Amino acid sequence: MSIVVTAATGALGRLVVEDLLERVPADQVAVVVRDEAKAADLAARGIEVRVADYDDRAALARAFEPGDRVLLISGNEIGRRVAQHTAVIDAAKAAGVAQLAYTGILGGPEADFELAAEHTTTEQAVLDSGLPYTFLRNGWYHENYTRELPTVLGHGAVVGSAGEGRVASAARADYAAAAAVVLTGEGHLNRIYELSGDAAWSLGEYAAEVSALSGKEIAYAEVAPDEHLRILTGAGVPEGFAAIIVDVDAAIERGRLAGTSGDLARLIGRPTTPVTEAIGAALA
Prior knowledge:
The chain is an alpha/beta fold. Helices cover about 45% and strands about 15% of the residues. The chain has helices at about 10-20, 40-45, 55-60, 80-95, 115-130, 145, 150-155, 170-185, 205-215, 225-235, 240-255, 265-270, 275-284, and strands at about 5, 30-35, 50, 70, 100-105, 135-140, 155-160, 165, 190-195, 200, 220. The strands form 3 sheets. A 7-stranded parallel beta sheet has the order 3-2-1-4-5-6-9, sandwiched between helices. Strands 7-11 form a two-stranded parallel ribbon. The protein has a two-stranded antiparallel sheet with strand order 8-10.
């Protein structure tokens, strides 16, 4: 039996693995990766590397073993994720894993925006499988915003169409720590966790904080959704993904990413990372 992390060389996966290694010996951890070479550093630390792609059912059939506790990190190929996730679920069921944890999205079925639809369908597929599950419904990452700081600083503005809507984001490392907790602890089977930051903020407040910490005047430029779409595509964002970003802002305006259940802080045993800390680190 191993604790198995899929997509383990991705941004979230690597953080989960690091947190796991603080809790259990390396020989109790396995990773599923597409590119074995990218996991060479993990293998060197005593972690078992299993090679499989979400699109390769034959390889996935060899990726899990009876009794494994598996973290299915959602894929990033929007529009293809249901088929990919279903392949993982089928392989996990065939192997007889003891737990299938899944990184979904805050709100579950109540998240009524396009990006959430594949997560909702995946959760239902997990339920239909009959596997013991843990749903980690992750809210927004601070990094979704802080990675755009060079552009924000260059233009002197945070551009969006979310109105006064609020985002209860947390650091990616906070969500990774929660995953490690449910994979190594007891009492988490057949549980749903609504994970988000301790405090919610608006894009206007975010812009003000960036301004204060950078020493540059940064405004929040509220634009209409169609104008937001035009700005994004004009900056080179593919139209399909730009439409998703605009749709998420509309969801933020409706309050869909503002929930502060406290589940994340309770799981990790500490307050979540404040967005101000994330901004400061990104600016350093």
